[in-house]
């Protein structure tokens, strides 16, 4: 697959830069997409779309600072993966009404439960967006499956600080749910 990507680039410096990113960060990007999608083949497709975007932005990408590059790749991979999920769900929604009816009857949930769950989810999302970014980013990374050690590297802080931020973020969420 790397050969196809490289064929679309013009200069040798662009090819070298892209090859470096591909070889060094492919597994990281795949793991990032897999934590969001939970389906390995769909995650690979999302990473492919991420690399297509990187091809378009290769001139602006700087590889000198690994922390900044890794953070950038994480964000781009996450965004492309979410976009890919949305496209995939739109394609899946074209399934027949008959199939959807029977699958919905198998997993029937009371409307009150759905309303309560949706309300709690909306409230949690609002609270997460309202809290300081240092807490929301740390908690989001933890929920995405990153270890304390990995989060410390990504946020350029100590493991102790990461644990404290996660604890405080959870406390803020719990306070808001139980006034």
Structure description:
The protein is mainly α. The chain is built from nine helices and no strands. The longest helix has 27 residues. The protein is globular and about 55 Å long.
Q: Structural class of the helices, strands and pairings?
A: mainly alpha
Q: Using DSSP, what is the number of strands?
A: 0
Portion in helices:
over 70%
Please count the helical segments: 9
Mean pLDDT value: 78
Characterize the overall form: globular
Termini separation: 53 Å
Q: Please give the radius of gyration in angstroms.
A: 20 Å
Order of helices and strands: HHHHHHHHH
Could you give a quick summary of the protein structure above?
The protein is mostly helical and 179 residues long.
For this entry, give a set of tags.
globular, mainly alpha, 179 residues, 0% strand
Chart the SSEs and their pairings.
Elements: H1 2-7, H2 12-37, H3 40-57, H4 66-92, H5 97-106, H6 111-130, H7 133-143, H8 148-155, H9 159-177
